[in-house]
Please model this.
Amino acid sequence: MHNCEDFIVRNDDYDAYVCLYCNTFLEIACTDPECYFCVERPLRPYTKKQHKEILQEIAAAKHLKTNEEEWGKFLASFED
Ligand SMILES: [Zn+2]
Ligand SMILES: [Zn+2]
Model:
């Protein structure tokens, strides 16, 4: 559906690369129990609300070829 490398950004909060599209870290956390970045690292870099906004921005910026209904369903899949 997409290539994570097209949506890769550096997330400074966790000092790690993330995919904006799938809201996942692209690097595994290190095993250092004292590591400042990894200790507090959540499962996902962004909250669902943040991620939804990011996806909307991506859609606007990239003009994804997705019809509105499908796009609505896709966004709804991120609702609680
Ligand atoms: Zn991805
Ligand atoms: Zn670390």
Remarks:
- The longest strand covers residues 8-11.
- The two ends are 23 Å apart (CA to CA).
